[in-house]
């Protein structure tokens, strides 16, 4: 059982949402790896909440395919599903490629400078070997392109569908972060030149790396798959 924080009762979000968000993060970052057991009672006790919001959060996670609730047996974190990863990739690629065509028209010089700063921060985290921080900055880079283009809702759709893809990506950051970093530079360069076709091609290449990641994980860590 992974350590979970006691919830801050002063937050405006519902208790169920807070429990869900924390468990979702633990599953995606593999702090709760495939096969990990979850106890409704233990989660409630650690987080200082009643069992009902934990039960509701468990249900939401099960509907997304991240945990399996087994009556009279332990609830477990599901293995990574290759089909679920590829479905998430299909959705994300379609949305981000469309976003790029809008972004090349709408991003200002200030936006481009802000994205360049993010890439500089990514370089620092790679040098420091901070996988979690790089992952967060990776997400922020993609989010900010959508937001700067006036398409924040697109990132909301991507975020809600990319969790299975993220689990595989997170496992690859020990060897794939430098490639991801370089490809962020290519995306930014295409945006700077207002080249929609190049931006689309760059983000397509970047996201399609997931297929190679899956193949490598199948060899290196077959135990994480169902």
From TrEMBL:
Lineage: superkingdom: Bacteria
PROSITE patterns: HTH_GNTR
Every HTH gntR-type domain range: 13-80
Pfam families, A to Z: FCD, GntR
Gene Ontology molecular function, alphabetical: DNA binding; DNA-binding transcription factor activity
CDD domains with a match to the protein in the record: WHTH_GntR
SUPFAM superfamilies attached to this UniProt entry: GntR ligand-binding domain-like, Winged helix' DNA-binding domain
Gene3D superfamilies, alphabetized: GntR ligand-binding domain-like (1.20.120.530), Winged helix-like DNA-binding domain superfamily/Winged helix DNA-binding domain (1.10.10.10)
Keyword entries, A-Z: DNA-binding, Transcription, Transcription regulation
PANTHER family for this protein: TRANSCRIPTIONAL REGULATOR, GNTR FAMILY, UXU OPERON TRANSCRIPTIONAL REGULATOR
Protein's name in the database: Putative HTH-type transcriptional regulator YdfH
Organism: Paracoccus haematequi
